Amino acid sequence: MTSLRGATPDEALARRGAILEAVRLAAESFLDPAEPWEAKMPQALIGLAQATGTSRVYLFENYRWDGDGEVWATQRFEWAAPGVRSIADDPTLLAMPYRGIGFGRWVERFQRGETVHGLRRDFRPVEQVQLTADETLSIAVVPITVEGRWWGMIGFDECAFERVWTEAELDALRAAASTIATAIRASRAEEALRGRVRALAAVAESLTVDQPLATTLSRLAATVVEASRATACSVQLVDPATEGLESVHHHGLPDGYPEALAELWRSDVETPIVTAVRRQESLWVPDARDMVLADDVFGPLQPLMPLVEWTGMLVVPLDPQRRNLGGLCVYYPPGVEVDDGERAFLRALADQAAAAVENARLYTAVQRSAALEERQRLARELHDSVSQALYGIALGAKTARQVVDRGPEALVEPLDYVVGLAEAGLAEMRALIFELRPEALEAEGLVAALDRQLRAVRARHQIDVTAALGPEPDLPIATKEALYRIAQEALHNVVKHADATAVTVTLGVDGGRLALVIVDDGVGFDPTADYPGHLGLRSMRERAVGVGAELGFTSAPGEGARLEVRIACG
Question: Alpha-carbon distance 34 to 546, whole Å?
Answer without folding.
Answer: 44
